[in-house]
Amino acid sequence: MSVDRVQRAGVIVELRKRAVDVAQSESADAARRLREADAAAQRAVAAWAEAIRVNGGVRASSAELAELNAWQRTLRLRADRALAQVGVARAVAERTRAALVAAQAELRKIEVWRDGLAADAREATQRVERRAADELAARTVRRSA
Question: How is domain 2-120 classified at the architecture level of CATH?
Answer without folding.
Answer: Orthogonal Bundle (1.10)
